[in-house]
Amino acid sequence: MRLAIKRRASSGQRPGPDGERAWDMEKARPQWGNPLQFVFACISYAVGLGNVWRFPYLCQMYGGGSFLVPYVIMLIVEGMPLLYLELAVGQRMRQGSIGAWRTISPYLSGVGVASVVVSFFLSMYYNVINAWGFWYLFHSFQDPLPWSVCPLNGNRTGYDEECEKASSTQYFWYRKTLNISPSIQENGGVQWEPALCLTLAWLVVYLCILRGTESTGKMEQLANPKAWINAATQIFFSLGLGFGSLIAFASYNEPSNNCQKHAIIVSIINSSTSIFASIVTFSIYGFKATFNYENCLNKVILLLTNSFDLEDGFLTANNLEEVKDYLASTYPSKYSDVFPHIRNCSLESELNTAVQGTGLAFIVYTEAIKNMEVSQLWSVLYFFMLLMLGMGSMLGNTAAILTPLTDSKVISSYLPKEAISGLVCLINCAIGMVFTMEAGNYWFDIFNDYAATLSLLLIVLVETIAVCYVYGLKRFESDLQAMTGRSLNWYWKAMWAFVSPVLIISLFVFYLSDYILTGTLQYQAWDATQGQLVTKDYPPHALAVIGLLVASSTMCIPLVALGTFIRNRLKRGGSSPVA
Amino acid sequence: MLWLLLFLVTAIHAELCHPDAENAFKVRLSIRTALGDKAYVWDTDEEYLFRAMVAFSMRKVPNRETTEISHVLLCNVTQRVSFWFVVTDPSKNHTLPAAEVQSAIRMNRNRINSAFFLDDHTLEFLKIPSTLAPPPDASVPVWIIVFGVIFCIVVVAIALLVLSGIRQRRRNNKGPLGVEDAEDKCENIITIENGIPCDPLDTKGGLINDGFLTEDERLTPL
């Protein structure tokens, strides 16, 4: 007996010219080699520079160990549920962010577009940090380290003036690395050295994503209501929600993958890394504070010894106070002349200086490293670690952009995967040259502060509401059950439907009101004559760019919904019912 | 008479050398900071050595080759150790210009420092800036070399991956073409006979189904 069975092509992808082909065009989706690769990709994406330079700062500002309480609570209430939601959506829809949201509801594909736009902004400026990491890494192979000594001035009688007023590490960062201009208006030209490093950073990213996202798994942001808000924000950004990267990663999973377990694992590892990084950072703070305190004391001792011609070695840290009193009483006029120059050295004030962001990574850490033994080794290790963290997050970002592009049949039929990746990297690199100009660091700060913050909150809010109320929580629950074989815990349902949206709305309202109430936005500019940062107002064109950044991603959602609505209306009006 | 002479000499000495005098320089030594336990005591012999070193430096200046140790006057030695010095001309009436003394000291700073086992920081001449040693400058900055190495590695790796991708795609395009010609002849329905799919059995095309025995073998030949 003959049984004729139409065989479905399991790996056919030949768009043949003749229409007789009855092969089903279901293109097979590349998959992770094993679930561990997926977990590693998510971890390397989530664990980024924010764990190293933002979380320790927040801990220090909001009471140290007690910050962990709001942090852990927000992790359980907001971070894990939202992470699980994104992974589940990606695994269920098996498409990148645009396709996934289009499947949920055609009116909501704007959410996917907004995610891609935000990821695009992020990848534009994030790789500049990797470029700086490369710069410092290459400069670590010198003895002495270039940021440990000041260069000499013109006639070699002393050190460069700007370096004297600031410190050698600050000078190396602001002058040698950034060559920063005094304000955002003075643009200057593109600096060739950071431009070269940025090109190299993009080449490395291209190398890793060349073959598609499945290769990234092999590589390896987060009392006092402010403390709670910052904990919520930190968890939110530390996990990288809303960029579409998690959806992209999860879309390459097998449908039966247990993404609930993975969501919990990734969020726990992300938070443990943050906590571990803060332990290290605090010890660096302590080292630096002790060193600076002792330096300060020595300077005071030298000043007093020289002014009063005391015996060399007589003044020590122990008898400093008594001798000061003695001198004040014995030589009152001379002491009052010297007094303004005597700094009050205090270990507490040194410990209280908290820095975050690029200031922490490139100034404070390098200052601590230059005082250690074998500083070249520590420097190389540290910047290598920064590069690993930065590259991991960067690959997740580019995956968020590339997956929707390669999913789209229009684009992927014209260009192979390598060409799409190359084009994306090239465009981002070209735009990223803006950040290598003299005023580039100011533009970087603009992007860092405004490109992703409000838009992400809105995107994740719409995502949660879309899944729970538009797609239907019951429908999603049954989908997940069919897919993974496990029923959905009531805890997740409660979080998705009620708690997380409420939290995000309150965060959103808080930040919006904060921006409105603050009035004009200001920024920190480096003043070379004083050797320190000064506050300035943003000029109008910078404010316009900020507005454009926020609007271009948030407006995607309503605009695409409107566009789909109009298109449907036209189609319905155009097509006449067949008699 | 001798007393008068001594008195006169001391008076002149005090006139020419006193703190903030014209053409006078203050010197500051930090012996204990530099040498720790091996610090020596600053006494008149050390002062003599110092005066000798200054006189030596002045002798290197053109027109001042006749400077003697006695022309160098020291005063106001403190516990610190710090003191003032001037260099007088042979007549001992007035002091040599500060610019000359400054340039002489700057030229021979290294010799003076090493005579006392000190360096520019621990033996300070106030108002005489020392020439700092520039950091060793390689002809090609080190970072460019490291950058070049990493850059070349990455570019080569990208080129290899891209080329292998192109080669693989070309192989994929050629491979299915062979199968396509064969399958053009049969319909797009694959027959499964007795549980054996025919496709892997048939590579030549046509409708020959090896699942069945051929006629010749089955029937006894006539």
From TrEMBL, chain A:
Membrane spanning stretches: 35-55, 67-85, 106-126, 227-252, 264-285, 380-402, 450-473, 494-513, 542-566
Give start-end of the signal peptide.
Answer: none
Its placement in the membrane is given as: Multi-pass membrane protein
Spans annotated as Disordered: 1-23
One GO MF term, please? Answer: metal ion binding
Which UniProt key words apply to this protein?
A: Membrane, Metal-binding, Sodium, Symport, Transmembrane, Transmembrane helix, Transport
Positions annotated to bind Na(+)? A46, V47, N51, S238, N270, L389, S393
Per its UniProt record, what SUPFAM superfamilies does this chain match? SNF-like (SSF161070)
Q: What superkingdom heads the lineage?
A: Eukaryota
Localization? Membrane
Q: Would you kindly state one Gene Ontology biological process term found in this protein's UniProt entry?
A: L-proline import across plasma membrane
Query: Main localisation, per the record?
Result: membrane
Any single Gene Ontology cellular-component annotation: apical plasma membrane
Q: Which InterPro entries match?
A: Na/ntran_symport, SNS_sf
Question: Mind telling me which PANTHER family this protein's record contains?
Answer: SODIUM- AND CHLORIDE-DEPENDENT TRANSPORTER XTRP3, SODIUM/CHLORIDE DEPENDENT TRANSPORTER
What protein is this chain from?
Transporter
Source species of the chain: Cricetulus griseus (Chinese hamster)
Automatic annotation (TrEMBL), chain B:
Q: Which region is the signal sequence?
A: none
State the compartments where it is located: Cell membrane
- Keyword Kinase among UniProt keywords: no
GO terms, molecular function: protein homodimerization activity; transporter activator activity
Key words, A-Z: Cell membrane, Glycoprotein, Membrane, Phosphoprotein, Signal, Transmembrane, Transmembrane helix
Which part of the chain is the Collectrin-like domain? 21-222
Q: Does Transmembrane show up as a keyword for this record?
A: yes
Which InterPro entries would you find in this protein's record? Collectrin, Collectrin_dom
Q: Name one GO biological process term.
A: insulin secretion involved in cellular response to glucose stimulus
Record's GO cellular component terms = brush border membrane; cytoplasm; extracellular exosome
Q: Where are the transmembrane segments?
A: 140-163
Topology in the lipid bilayer is annotated as:
Single-pass type I membrane protein
Which PANTHER family does this chain map to? COLLECTRIN
Q: What is this protein called?
A: Collectrin isoform X1
Name the gene behind this protein: Cltrn
